[in-house]
Task: structure prediction
Amino acid sequence: LAATGERLSVLCIGAHPDDIEIGAGATILGWIERGVRLDVHWVVLSACGARAEEARASATGFLGNSARAVIELATFKDGYFPHQAAEIKLWFEELKKRSSPDVILCHWRLDAHQDHRQVSELTWNTFRDNVVLEYEIPKWDGDLGQPNVYLPASAATIERKARLLEHHFGSQRSKDWFDSAVFMGLARLRGMECRAPDGFAEAFHARKLAVQ
Result:
């Protein structure tokens, strides 16, 4: 998507704090580590109170060496996105006026979480001329699919992603799915599937790509 020294504009959209980091954290870290001049607009739609503080601190940690970073937090009610669809749609239309990215990273359209699905639907409904890569989030629902885009990552980058997640999201540590072994295990599985040089990768769903 971009070579060392080239600029890449990325819009990262997550329903909740930690979504972007879990789904695409290593990809973002890897771009920065390889010297891509990353211009990031980082959006979290449901970030209130202590969770907002976690979201901002984590985004800052992941984007510390990016060329430019805009972090935007909204306060839609967690778990109720389908019932707030009209309000969120209007918010997306305003977001489009502020962002014209090369690549959008967002939730997978068949994710079992209702908020995630709503974000994916509105992303595609709003941004019609951009490359959209839909990331995956492991959870108890067992909803992992068959991705078709793989971005290899080094073992060091995957480990750094896991450390940053554990460091910044103390409110989630008691949950059985929030575990470094889960994050690294999925990355190892995806790395095996694409024969990644270091054995690790993050995987995405691409519904439509125009290749020139």
About this structure: The first strand starts at residue 7 and ends at 14. Residues 19-33 form the longest helix (15 residues).
